Amino acid sequence: MTTSVVLPVLTRQHLIDPEICIRCNTCEEACKKGAITHDRRNYAVDAERCDACGDCLPPCPTGAIDSWRRVEQPHPVAAQLGWDALPEEITEAASGAAPMPQSVVEMVKEASFGQGGPAPPPWSAAHPYVGLYTPDRPAEATVVGKRRLTGDDSEVDIEHLVLDFGKTAFPILEGQSIGVLPPGATEDGRPHALRLYSTASPRDGERPGSNNLALTVKRVTRDLDGKPVRGVASGYLCDLEKGDRVRVTGPYGTSFLMPNHPGAKLLMICTGTGSAPMRAMTERRRRRLSRGEGGSILLFFGARRRSELPYFGPLMKLPKELIDVELAFSREPGQPRAYVQDRLRGRAQDVARLLSDDDAFIYLCGHKRMEQGVFEALAEIALSHEIVWADLKQRLRTEGRLHVETY
Amino acid sequence: MSIDYASKIPNNVDLDQNRQLQRALEHWQPKYLEWWREVGPVESHSSEVYLRTAVSVDSKGWAQFGYVKMPDYRWGIFLAEREPSRKIGFGSHKGQAVFEEVPGELRSTLRRIIVTQGDTEPASVEQQRFLGGTCPSLYDLRNLYQVNVEEGRHLWAMVYLLHAHFGRDGREEGEALLERRSGDADKPRILGAFNEQTPDWLAFFMFTFLTDRDGKYQLAALAESGFDPLARSTRFMLTEEAHHLFVGETGVGRIIQRTVEAMKQHKVEAPDQVRALGVIDLPTIQRYLNFHFSVTLDLYGGEISSNASTFYAMGLKGRFDESKIDDDHVLASAEYKLLDLAGDRLVDKHVNAQLALNERLRDDYIADCQAGVDRWNKIIDKSGLPFRFKLAHKAFNRKIGTFAGARVSPDGEVVGEAKWTHHAADWLPTAEDHAFVRSLMGRVTEAGKYANWIAPPARGIDNKGVDFEYVRFA
Predict the structure, then answer these.
(1) Could you tell me the maximum CA-CA distance found in chain B, to the nearest angstrom?
(2) Which of A250, A389, B2, B192 could form a disulfide with B56 if both were Cys (CB 3.0 to 4.6 A apart)?
(3) Strands A195-198 and A177-181
(4) DSSP state, B193?
(5) A59 lies in which domain range?
(6) How far apart (Å, rounded) are the C-alpha atoms in residues B52 and B77?
(7) Which residues of B touch A61 (CB under 8 A)?
(8) How far apart are CA A69 and CA A322, in angstroms?
């Protein structure tokens, strides 16, 4: 018996912008796959031969070679040779992207409740794609990497999972989420509900230029009241093996996005797997560090103990000029209990400076129960600088500078 | 194939394995730097310029960007990767293994080709040395400097070949390349076009669009060479050359863009009214195009050339895209159609294709130029203005070959002396045109600002913004 495979709905096609290209032939010279060809008028990329290796990109003097379109059917070479300009990018409506499923709308609303209402994205955020893939028309990704992030001695199982989209276009920004469709059905025969996971990778993939993303997944073994349960989606994801296929919807999220302007500062507060979007944003910044765009990152990161803190090792290796890290452990043996709000108070001067800086953007992600403590600490810090927190919070939100995602 | 940057002279030719050659080039290196300091870009030596430097010749290491002071730029010797078992692709040795050394009977002529090509590289640096004083933006200044350092790199490429394969004669030619000076009455550069001034940025962009394109076609013909070190050297140079063509094509394109915007905004078309807006009127741009195009056509030499025929037969210099042409690659009996002057008429003439290789290369070049001009016209088309740029007829304003001294209009009409004199000011830039263009040339060095007569580029270099600080002054 063969199982039916969901075909990619959209593929990412490499093209050359005829308005910018000067027909210098360096790309054709550089392409070892013989995918680039030309006539008297234009240069074109044969989608059959191009494997997006990127060899042609550096020699291009104009940047025309670095053009990509999401397409249902690749544009044939003959058509490209006749172009005066690149075709329009397929809009979400034209690509058949459906509105967000009601369940996603509700989950997002619930998660961002703490910020006090809807917030616009930072003014310099990139335009996000939303809802390209739906439960009826999901994308299919392959597990290409998996590793346990928590120590072997820890009872907590947090996995780092890398999903590759192959030739399927899945444009996603730091702070956005994907929906995962666990296979199978509930006892009463309905398909399992989709679950949202934030991407832990920057927009250009786990390695720059790759079409993949990572998730930080904690195996759920207890519900919010502490009763033992088996998390359907998290259990499914944590048990996946390399090579397994996953049905994915999304991307989702139009608000919890990072600013892109030089000099923008990030204040990030997270616990546990709430670190995923923070990792994505930090890595985006790290890859652009050599550009000298400025802008600091101040991270407050909490976990029960060191061995349960996702990405502890890599985090400690990040350069000081990139990120300033404050860790808080609430159950580290032999140490007093510390929470992120305690660390916020310890850095009150720096936090206050960020609160009154128009270029600073605040992100909160993790357990619902940290929310109250964090906001109390921020209110205290604000007050000691003669700022009314309630007013400031409202202003931060409406200016797209405060983003909350808690669960 | 990584480049050894630990050596005094960065290279990927195992220079440390050949002590004699290494010593000779290390002897030449300080003289080169002295030449750069003396006649390279003026007042540039302490500026930090956001330049690309190759760290390897494969695509991954090809373009590394960073701030560099130009005298510290790592000029060196970079050859494209060797193709194992490469065969000679044309001429009477077609199908034989490529030469690693120069065939004895061709030494002096091949040396001449390399010297002539090599001479153009420092010449253009000398021609452009004052342009930095009138740059329209930091972005353009950086592009000028990138062109300059890469022309310097191309000189290195040619000097390496001279040193490595032509013994004492080659070394002497290497010295002479640093002694001639563009426009110097006593020791001029070899080719006419490289003794002309590059007095303003319109001329610079025309030069990089048209004259550097001649470089592209000459290098492409040499990249087909059966003399493998020459082929590999020129193949890598072609990748660098593309940036120069880009600077020219987009530079002129941005000038046109700005002019057209101003014309539409103020609803004027008459050249003097357009000039009053502080932008360059389209007919002046056309006259610059006519001039630079016609002098560049001369660089291809005479229509009939027995030298070119010999080089081809010996497998030393091919046609443009030789390996992609579908014929016998020997051309013993093939014919080529070229244009001749019969009294006051232009007529077709058929000659042996091997004798007409200069003309064939010139024709390929003209088609490439035409495609670029068509793209400029699209900028005007979008505005709805009726003006069209035209490439002048190939017999127009020529000093070399069949049409030398003939009076032919840009439309290809053979005209008498009287008509020529009457129209010369419509066809070629006048002293007044030059004075006007020069009058616009200020110096804009604030990041993100562009002179009034040129539009900002569509995108920056290395994904940087158009307002990036591409040059930092000391």
Answers:
(1) 68
(2) B2
(3) antiparallel
(4) G
(5) 11-81
(6) 16
(7) 242-243, 245-246
(8) 32
DSSP state of B208: I
Cβ within 8 Å of residue A204, ≥6 positions away: A210, A287
For residue A99, is it within any domain? Answer: no
Count the helices and strands in chain A (H runs, E runs).
10, 15
Shared-domain flag, residues A262 and A220: no
Query: How close B208 gets to chain A, by Cα (Å)?
Result: 13
Both A199 and A265 in one domain: the answer is: no
The CATH code of the domain at B15-472 is 1.10.620.20
Domain match, A129 and A118 both = no
Determine the longest span between alpha carbons in chain A, in angstroms.
75
- How many structural domains does chain A have? 3
Q: Check: CB of residue B316 under 8 Å from CB of residue B226.
A: yes
Answer whether A20 sits within 8 Å of B249, measured CB to CB: no
A29/B216 CB distance under 8 A: no
Q: What is the pLDDT of residues B368-420, one digit of tens each?
A: 999 999 999 999 999 899 999 999 999 999 999 999 999 999 999 999 899 99
Same domain, A74 and A113: no
pLDDT tens for residues B58-87? 767 777 899 999 999 989 998 988 888 999
Mark whether A171 and A217 lie in a shared domain.
yes
Triad A229, A231, A234: Cα angle to 5°: 150
| b/e per residue B163-184 (b: at least 16 CB within 10 A) | bbbbeeebbebbeebbebbbee
What is the rounded CA–CA span in Å between residue A151 and residue A158? Answer: 9
Does a structural domain hold residue A88?
no
**Final residue in a domain of this structure, among A212, A237, A252:** A252
Residue A93, domain member (yes or no): no
Q: Is residue A96 part of a domain?
A: no
The H or E element that residue A214 is part of is strand A212-218
Q: Do B239 and A29 touch (CB under 8 A)?
A: yes
- How confident is the model over A235-271, as pLDDT tens digits? 999 999 999 999 999 999 989 999 999 999 999 999 9
**Cβ–Cβ contact A58 with B under 8 A:** yes
Tokens 């129209």, residue?
A: B423
3-state DSSP percent of chain A in helix, strand and coil, to 5: 25, 25, 50
Give yes or no: residues A59 and A19 share one domain: yes
How far lies B387's CA from each of B263, B281, B286, B410, in Å? 12, 11, 10, 16
